[in-house]
Amino acid sequence: MPIDKLVLIIVVVIAAAGATIWLSLFVAAFFQFTFGWLILAPVGLVIYVIYRVIAERVGNAEEDHYDNMDH
């Protein structure tokens, strides 16, 4: 396995663990503060926009223009 793929896997796992901890703390804070639910709509919107941008870039053939070029 190339070292760059190994590093990418490690970074993704650490980021996922951090996101899980952050999300669980965020949900726990919702139950403690009444106004915490008002933050849910903007956070959900930001997450949705990030998801749509990533999904568009992954599924778009025009983004892969330089992948098939010889060096």
Give your account of this protein's structure.
- The chain crosses the membrane at residues 7-29, 35-54.
- Keywords: Membrane, Transmembrane, Transmembrane helix.
- The structure is a single chain.
- The chain starts with a helix and ends in a 12-residue tail after the last helix.
- The model has no long low-confidence stretch (mean pLDDT 79).
- The chain has one domain.
- The chain is mainly α.
- It contains 2 helices and no strands.
- The protein is flat, with a radius of gyration of 18 Å.
The major sheet is characterized as: none
The total domain count is: 1
Q: Identify low-pLDDT runs.
A: none
Please count the helical segments: 2
Helical/strand content category: mainly alpha
Question: TL;DR of this structure?
Answer:
With 71 residues, the chain is mainly α. The chain is built from 2 helices and no strands.
